[in-house]
Design goal:
The protein is of the alpha/beta class. Strands 3, 4, 5, 6, 7, 14 and 15 form a seven-stranded mixed β-sheet that branches. Strand 14, helix 11 and strand 15 form a beta-alpha-beta unit. Helix 3 crosses helix 4, helix 3 packs across helix 9 and helix 6 packs parallel to helix 7. The relative contact order is 0.16.
Amino acid sequence: MAPLPETMTAMVIRAPGGPEMLVAEQRPLPRLGDGEILVKVRAAGVNRPDIMQRRGQYPPPPGAPADIPGLEVAGEVAALGHGVTRFALGDAVCALLPGGGYAEFAKVHETNALPAPKRLSVSEAAAVPETFFTIWPSIMERGQLSLGDTILIHGGTSGIGTSAIQLARVAGSRVITTSGSDEKCQACRELGADVAINYKTEDFVEVVKRVTDGAGANVILDMVGGDYVNRNYEAAAVEARIVQIAVQRGAKAEVDVRRLMMKRLWHTGSTLRPQSIAFKARIASTLHEKLWPLFEARKITPIIGSTYPLARAADAHFRMDAGDHIGRIVLTVTED
């Protein structure tokens, strides 16, 4: 491989605010610690936590770059820290980061990186880690999604939603989703959703009850929060599992706890970014075993809605803020 440069281009949050606060700066390459690898970034995923960090609403965990967002990348191993055994220079990888992905180089502990799935493009590989590290423990472990279950997935055309629909279908579940337009609902159906509800024109609780003959959904994946919490309890089946992964409508809700009691509901939740390297390593190992064969057979593929060069990261954030995208938004960082 070519000698490493001393500096790299990174998209930096100048100050909390709008997308225009993302500006290009030259920064030193990350310094590797024990067990870490340096990735020459080819593509980086854009995620909702990046938006929140840019707004000053989601501080990065200790040790992560304070002003460079980016939680997932794909590229090649450019340098090895002391004790690295899983990868060699030049290996194609995708990786889950605590931050720093909007740059030409990023570092990550080797256990939080995986071989880039064969038959996925570099943009698709970059869109795997954050989404699937979130979805698998949410719906397969906490949600205990099983063959024959009905799952309600809110935000069906988001990066999480488009991936969760595919995973739930492979798991043999009936899929109901919500989205904000007829066009988005059609996109959900094309991905495999059995029922897609336009939440702006229909009451998702009524539709879920109708299409399940009153039984309700066995698993609910919710990133909305707020007033959706109580409505999820209404839409849930007896002994349903409700998994909270975000609270876009607010972290507080007034709920009728009697529904939770009478239906014997499980309402759980999780966050990914603050978790330990060891926690993420466990998920990485599970994903490699369970999902990599599906990626490599293209039975599941990240849906890429749009790509932008790294220098246009602000435009990518404007697009996500607008909320009209379907699937993932990815930054292309360096060319092959």
